[in-house]
Automatic annotation (TrEMBL):
It comes from Fulvitalea axinellae. Residues 1-217 form the Calcineurin-like phosphoesterase domain. InterPro entries: Calcineurin-like_PHP, Metallo-depent_PP-like. One of its GO terms (molecular function) is hydrolase activity. This is Calcineurin-like phosphoesterase domain-containing protein. Signal peptide: none annotated. The lineage of its organism: Bacteria, Pseudomonadati, Bacteroidota, Cytophagia, Cytophagales. It comes from the Bacteria.
Amino acid sequence: MRIAIFSDIHGKILLPFKLVDAYQNETGKKIDLILQCGDVGAFPDLSVLDKATLRYAEEDPDELGFHDDFVREKEEIRSFLDRVDVKMVCVRGNHEDHDFLDRLEAENPDSDIFPVDAYGKVWFCKSGKPLSFEKNGEKISFLGIGRIGDPKNRDNKRYVQDYERREIRKALKKANGFDLLLTHDKATGNGGVGGMPEIRFSLDNAFFAYHFHGHTGEPFFERKDSNGKTVTCKIKELEFSKGGALEAGSMIVLEKKNGKLGEIQKVGQKVLSCATRFGWKYL
């Protein structure tokens, strides 16, 4: 089994699928699942854009990609996504239409993930709900925690909610561990300020082989968490540099073979350079 992992795509919903297609063409290796660490930019209604997204969208129309390309079906995009044949499962970031996601979450009470797009390819997972994915006899387990932490305990929906805190604690009581922890925010601790205490609690109270997150704006890194067990990986935001290129560490591939997880693989520039700021949609 092989999964690709991205963070902060900010409306460029199609780009991870384009990069997966380029990776498969270059390597001949199939990607079975995409995981995404939040800030999808899921805004079907442009009247509710948050201030930051609205500001960035004035310079980069790709910030509006969910509204433009994934709310109503377009034949050429449907054809491409069907050919690539992979699903993207996301956690919530802080830049999403949370009222929209809340409605869809409520409409899917019996499922721990729910589709949000016209093609059935982009799914969000509910925070604190244990998930697993099986392919070709391999199984990968993960726990998703969306949104960001807030030391002031404000009730804005971009911050982790009380019902999600309860689900996280419930999941940790029932399970001894998971392959992956997928979050938007970082954990508190490990130096620096900010982060989400609920992520710290999860890392300290269950086993995770890997923790993937975005949000912070830092370059790619991987290092051992303070719990001494988990490898934490900050994935570079999927954004173009001033020169128009994607940066190293913005696409990660992880394999599970014979029941064992491999090492984190940073996808190289040969694949990333296929996508440029003004040409990536034409890949």
